[in-house]
# Entry
Amino acid sequence: MAFYERDVDVMISADAVQAKVRELAAQITKDYAGKDVTLIGVMKGSVFFLVDLAKAVDLPVTIELMGVSSYHGGTETTGEVRITHDVSKPLHGRHLILVEDIVDTGLTMQFLLENLGARHPASIKVAALLEKPARAKVKIPIDYKGFVIEDKFVVGYGLDYGEKYRNLPFIGVMNAG
Ligand code: 5GP
# Structure
């Protein structure tokens, strides 16, 4: 029995995730033909998606990472976000794609889009592997969207539960068992 099987059920298989990543990468390759693109991943959750996406995009790509931490008022995020790790290079004049694992309330993305927009990039778009529209507090335009999911807590492919399960190659859901 694999280590996760008792606690996690598969929601989106590893093959389905990989096929979707290739599809999004092909779209990005088409949309940015002739341009350089900077993929900005939000740590730690989006790192798996960022790496697979970057490998599948047929363009000159640069990679940046940002770390953020949200302030929580109880269990709900307050929308106040603090940058714990910033990008390593100026973003002025660059074509940015902000790469996220999941857009839930949308508050993290809203903050990041405002913050990055103030640095005068040539353009900013959003790639998110998952969207949970049931919990949206703000509308985030997702240009490259993987899967829309129902309001369940998911793990795997970068997403954690107490830092565990990030290394699962599929998207899983914590089961009641
Ligand atoms: P938002 O600001 O959109 O509410 O929060 C986005 C962040 O919350 C995601 O980047 C992720 O870290 C975390 N998050 C939201 N929903 C889930 C979920 O179902 N599973 C896990 N593991 N993290 C989630």
Residues 45, 77, 100-108, 153-155, 159-161 surround guanosine-5'-monophosphate (CB under 6 Å). The two ends are 15 Å apart (CA to CA). The mean pLDDT is 94. The chain has one domain: 13-152.
